[in-house]
Specification:
Layout: H1 3-8, E1 12-16, H2 20-26, E2 30-32, H3 35-42, H4 55-67, E3 74-77, H5 86-102, E4 110-115, H6 118-129, E5 134-139, H7 142-151, E6 155-158, H8 161-171, H9 182-196, E7 202-205, H10 211-215, E8 222-225, H11 227-234, H12 246-250, H13 261-269, H14 272-302
Parallel strand pairs: 1-2, 1-8, 2-3, 3-4, 4-5, 5-6, 6-7, 7-8
Helix pairs in contact: 3-14, 4-5, 5-6, 6-7, 7-9, 7-13
The structure holds erythose-4-phosphate.
Residues 16, 32, 34, 137, 157, 159, 161-162, 206-207, 224 line the site of erythose-4-phosphate (E4P).
Length: 303
Amino acid sequence: MNQLDALKRVSIVVADTGDIDAVARWRPQDATTNPSLLLAAAQDPRYRRLVNADMDRMFVNFGREILKHVAGRVSTEVDARLSFDTVATLAKARRLMALYAEAGIGPERVLIKIAATWEGIRAAEQLEREGIHCNLTLLFSFAQAVACAEAGVTLISPFVGRIYDWHKAARKVEDIAIEEDPGVASVTRIYNYYKRHGYQTQVMGASFRKPAQIIALAGCDLLTIAPDLLEKLAHAQGAVPAMLSVDAARRVPIAQVSLNEKAYRWLHNEDAMAVEKLSDGIRKFDADARKLETFMAAQARAA
Ligand code: E4P
């Protein structure tokens, strides 16, 4: 059996892409998008028909097309500019859901993706009460994970590759062995903590740089994987045993903590990597959203 099929036996496989043909090819359960992925997809001539002068509509156009190829959910991201504004995030999420509703798509098929800042987590807490399910992204610290679980969000996307990138750069090395990979260790710790303490929030490992990182997290609730890595897994043979499991996690001695705003900010700030990567991630998603706006305006002028 190839490793992709083997992985699907222990984790829900999600495609991390705006490329609709890739989703159709790999037939994952769910799919995730972000502004950078949609910038790439919007510039692809195959998807020009989905480009719209209104960015929210364009994101929903891509989401709607992706949903034709997955049985589960699509994640659509809120504008990174709103990352520190709870009220504006609420309004944006509600608008995206209204656009999905106009397209005949119900809330069970969409995850609103929000940066896991304190303000974003508060917005997600409220949205979940309204029946709008959220995927908290750019998640690098344990503090972010604890706050998301306490807020009762549907799903978190803890990043692996960007943590690995940061540590590689800090250590000035070309690679970090999988047994010592700090991105893999971060997701493992979060998964064990959630299962040990019975949180319902799902854990979706994200941002991978190599198949070994994915294999090391087999058993995680979900794993969102870019098409090039899905391809590599599909072409590799071998067993993929579950490295994470609810039973094993329940035996891990890891104390429960509760974080108010001050404690959250303190604990998150203690993690230099997480502070840097969260800020950097917001800047990058924002930069790509602005490039997308410029591209959409040029397309509208040309039309
Ligand atoms: C997940 O939510 C993101 O879309 C994605 O996994 C980020 O991956 P990257 O670090 O390769 O950009």
